[in-house]
Amino acid sequence: MHRASEFVVGLMAGLGLLLSGMTDPAKVLGFLDLFGAWDPSLALVMGGAIAVGLFAFSVAKKRTRTFLGGALYLPEAQQIDKPLVIGGLLFGAGWGLAGFCPGPALVALAAGHPKAAAFVAAMIAGMLLCDVLDRRLHRAPTA
Length: 143
Description:
Helix content is 68%, strand content 0%. The radius of gyration is 18 Å and the shape is globular. It has one domain. The protein is mainly alpha-helical. The protein contains six helices and no strands. Helix 5 packs across helix 6.
């Protein structure tokens, strides 16, 4: 049952990304072009996502188990720290340069868009590099 619900939720999210235009880099870049031919349509998509998220988190905060009975883990961090700021800047720069963010890029990749393949490859390389750097920076000193 868990896998089936994961599949259905993922399918709905992917369809939502396709229908909203989030998988089209030109549409995304048009939204980010505030001083040119600005396309405000994705602001409605983001507003809808924020509204759903606010509702979902308000319900989730009151629960200790998921609706299917699994343990419910919510983020505990409350502060803005250096890794969060750097990650946000890198995420925004990648989104602005390529017109993709991770979720829509995966949907576009599944739809066969070549630019999405390049983005996903770069995203995976960045994740691996981040993991390597994180391990080196937080490695316990040897005696």
